[in-house]
UniProtKB/TrEMBL annotation:
Keyword Amino-acid biosynthesis: no
Cofactor(s) the protein needs: pyridoxal 5'-phosphate
InterPro entries: Aromatic_deC, PyrdxlP-dep_de-COase, PyrdxlP-dep_Trfase, PyrdxlP-dep_Trfase_major
Keywords: Decarboxylase, Lyase, Pyridoxal phosphate
Transmembrane segments: none
Cited SUPFAM superfamilies: PLP-dependent transferases (SSF53383)
UniProt keyword annotation of Lyase present: yes
Entry's family note: Belongs to the group II decarboxylase family.
Protein name per Swiss-Prot or TrEMBL: Pyridoxal phosphate-dependent decarboxylase family protein
Top-rank taxon: Bacteria
Length: 470
């Protein structure tokens, strides 16, 4: 039986530092009320999609310095603070949010963040949160199955795709050069990747001590996709591959590499095959788009972000390996207060992080509410909406679309105007939030259709507005 730790005659609120449960309940209601209004206004497009006042002005509006020095926030002043805070951000639920690959989070994932904020059960060590760690095990097992890895596969959730890519390359290095952890990197190692690969992969080579000059660019077509027929040229290089990377999909264009062609080449030549599926692996859940990931099961490692197309809040990124032993070999660590005894349920040996949030709960609750089919339908709808934008834009005078989209990312240009000026103008207005990218030496506007509220009316309004100001 649990011991009753309450002292005789103890007051309700207890010693300094304990939660005031009545106050917590009150401000939780305020938070729910404010967030509900925020999401509702955002989804209906009743407010600007973003504001970006200068930091000094925002600091004054939110009275940050006084609160930091003096404290004293109450439920009533918190209400005012939160209203200002929410009004001055970027609204990812807004139909005009079309910029970056950050999820418009579903409410079950938001509940998970609320739960973690109160319980704070890290999942890297089982004894610190058995329920959270078990949920992560279940979510990873599901992801491994969807990728096509067998029962011998391994996985872990990390705080973002950059850490996920770094972890995957650590596993690849352990397979290629198992003594590198203790002895340092052999001088002949190289990472083979298309120029369109995410910047975090080059950054990882610097962190690993391989040096960014070790990245060997693969031959690609005019749109940045790996030219499988020219892959043998990469073996003519005098450096030994730590891994060969393919995009699923490329961050800039949303286009997929030929995973089967690349995977078969890597298998035939004994090269570690890494698939960066941070954004596009979620197409595995769509019957219509699963074909884009044909061959992903040939990979040795895959990363897959839940905080993009699986609609969790940031951050929750999976590192998945075809063989669990490869992921277990990524790190070799010591620490008598953590690493001892029977730790078969601990995840700390697979991550950079010693403390890890309850990330699996976010994805689990989204799945529990929406189901695998519901998340797949969301992916299919966003991909279809992006394709519809391409159809509308290419019929408009002055608009140029360099390719037919494969995902929810579309690149386009309008006329000969400075595309960056068009983007800045819309951001200053708060009318639309777009990003941009370089393609073939030219600057293109770029949309990522990620908010469920984005529909054909939004797309038409965007085209009209660009034509008006462009």
């Amino acid at each position: 039986m649990p011991h009753n730790f309450r002292s005789h005659g103890e007051e309700r609120h207890g010693p300094v530092g304990r939660w005031d449960i009545e106050e917590f309940t009150k401000v939780a209601e305020v938070t729910t009320e404010q967030l509900a209004a925020y999401v509702d206004d955002s989804q209906r497009g009743l407010v600007p999609v973003l504001r970006r006042r200068p930091p000094k002005e925002l600091e004054v509006r939110m009275d940050l310095r006084r609160y930091i020095r003096e404290g004293g926030m109450t439920a009533d002043s918190y209400r005012d603070f939160l209203r200002t805070y929410l009004a001055e951000g970027t609204r990812l639920h807004h139909p005009a949010y079309l910029a970056h690959q950050d999820a418009s989070p579903d409410f079950p994932a938001a509940l998970a963040d609320f739960i973690h904020g109160a319980t704070n059960n890290p999942t890297a060590i089982y004894e610190m949160g058995a329920a959270g760690t078990t949920v992560e095990f279940a979510v990873l097992e599901w992801m491994l199955e969807r990728v096509g890895f067998g029962a011998d596969g391994g996985g872990v959730l990390t705080h973002g795709g950059s850490l996920a890519n770094l972890t995957a390359l650590l596993a690849a290095r352990a397979a290629v050069a198992p003594d590198a952890w203790a002895d340092g990197n052999p001088a002949d190692l190289a990472l083979f990747a298309p120029p369109s690969a995410h910047y975090s992969l080059t950054r990882a080579t610097g962190i690993l001590g391989l040096g960014t000059n070790c990245v060997v660019p693969l031959a690609v077509d005019d749109l940045g996709r790996i030219d499988v027929a020219r892959l043998p040229e990469s073996l003519e290089h005098d450096r030994r591959p730590i891994a060969l990377v393919a995009n699923a999909c490329a961050t800039g264009t949303g286009l997929y590499d030929d995973l089967r062609g690349v995977g078969e080449f890597c298998r035939d030549h004994g090269i570690w095959f890494h698939v960066d599926g941070a954004h596009g692996a979620s197409a595995l859940l769509s019957d219509e788009h699963r074909r884009l990931l044909d061959g992903i099961e040939l990979a040795d490692s895959v990363i897959w972000d839940a905080h993009k197309m699986l609609r969790t809040s940031s951050l929750a990124a999976a590192v998945l390996t075809r063989r669990h032993a490869d992921l277990d070999a990524a790190f070799q660590q010591e620490g008598s207060y953590l690493f001892y005894g029977d730790q078969r349920f601990d995840l700390i040996g697979r991550t950079v992080e010693g403390t890890k949030a309850e990330q699996g709960l976010k994805l689990f609750l989204n799945l529990a509410w929406r189901g695998e089919r519901g998340l797949g339908d969301y992916v299919a709808r966003q991909y279809a909406t992006a394709h519809r934008f391409w159809e509308l834009a290419r019929k408009r005078p002055g608009f140029e679309c360099p390719y037919e989209p494969e995902s929810n990312i579309v690149c386009f240009r309008y006329g000969t105007a400075d595309q960056a000026v068009i983007r800045e103008r819309m951001m200053d207005e708060g009318s639309f939030h777009l990003s941009s990218t370089d393609l073939g030496g030219n600057r293109y506007l770029r949309i990522t259709v990620i908010a469920p509220a984005t529909d054909e009316r939004t797309l038409t309004a965007l085209l009209d507005h660009i034509a008006e100001i462009g």
